[in-house]
Amino acid sequence: MMWILLILLSYCLGSISFSYLLTKLIKNEDIRNHGSGNAGATNTLRVLGKGPAIAVLLLDSMKGIISVLVPLWLGFSPNIAILCGFAAVIGHNYPVFFGFKGGKGVATTIGVFAAISFFPSLIAGIIAILTIWISRFVSLGSIVFLILTPFFMLYHYSLPFFAIVTGGCISAVSVWRHRGNIQRLLKGTERKI
């Protein structure tokens, strides 16, 4: 039963919207009413600038890291840990504290993947950063990271197959949240940074 509580707590942790809270603190406005309408690091960059965006990226990533590491520290399997990470991503995307209107889950997913499978995440992250640097599309780099990491996790032999499949499901949810970005990329109308 403890693992169910951990999953619920991970969802609640994921539901803390740092982009919303920082924008409210700095501008006394709802970030979801500005820019792309997304409660995440990229929209924070556009609305508040680099400093707050970096803070949101790090804090949102920490939600994923904490949600995975706490179950592992408590002796639970990687399967339970990644389910907790999945719950944190769902919380970020559909936060109970903010009317179920959140972000796309990329930063939280980065934290989950880095905590459960660091080197595959690092390699995918480097490729994603290069993609952003070359294309100037954050969404494209995010999608590259989300697609590559579960495949690279297949080569992380200590991970149970269930954890890898769950990682693929986490990525699928976040890619789905990018469907508007994908359409704009295909039409050539996506905003660059």
TrEMBL record:
<comment type="subunit">
    <text>Probably interacts with PlsX.</text>
</comment>
<dbReference type="GO" id="GO:0005886">
    <property type="term" value="C:plasma membrane"/>
</dbReference>
<keyword id="KW-0812">Transmembrane</keyword>
<keyword id="KW-0012">Acyltransferase</keyword>
<keyword id="KW-1208">Phospholipid metabolism</keyword>
<feature type="transmembrane region" description="Helical">
    <location>
        <begin position="161"/>
        <end position="177"/>
    </location>
</feature>
<keyword id="KW-0443">Lipid metabolism</keyword>
<keyword id="KW-0472">Membrane</keyword>
<keyword id="KW-1133">Transmembrane helix</keyword>
<comment type="pathway">
    <text>Lipid metabolism; phospholipid metabolism.</text>
</comment>
<feature type="transmembrane region" description="Helical">
    <location>
        <begin position="137"/>
        <end position="155"/>
    </location>
</feature>
<dbReference type="GO" id="GO:0008654">
    <property type="term" value="P:phospholipid biosynthetic process"/>
</dbReference>
<keyword id="KW-1003">Cell membrane</keyword>
<protein>
    <recommendedName>
        <fullName>Glycerol-3-phosphate acyltransferase</fullName>
        <ecNumber>2.3.1.275</ecNumber>
    </recommendedName>
</protein>
<keyword id="KW-0594">Phospholipid biosynthesis</keyword>
<keyword id="KW-0808">Transferase</keyword>
<dbReference type="GO" id="GO:0043772">
    <property type="term" value="F:acyl-phosphate glycerol-3-phosphate acyltransferase activity"/>
</dbReference>
<dbReference type="Pfam" id="PF02660">
    <property type="entry name" value="G3P_acyltransf"/>
</dbReference>
<feature type="transmembrane region" description="Helical">
    <location>
        <begin position="106"/>
        <end position="130"/>
    </location>
</feature>
<comment type="function">
    <text>Catalyzes the transfer of an acyl group from acyl-phosphate (acyl-PO(4)) to glycerol-3-phosphate (G3P) to form lysophosphatidic acid (LPA). This enzyme utilizes acyl-phosphate as fatty acyl donor, but not acyl-CoA or acyl-ACP.</text>
</comment>
<comment type="similarity">
    <text>Belongs to the PlsY family.</text>
</comment>
<dbReference type="InterPro" id="IPR003811">
    <property type="entry name" value="G3P_acylTferase_PlsY"/>
</dbReference>
<keyword id="KW-0444">Lipid biosynthesis</keyword>
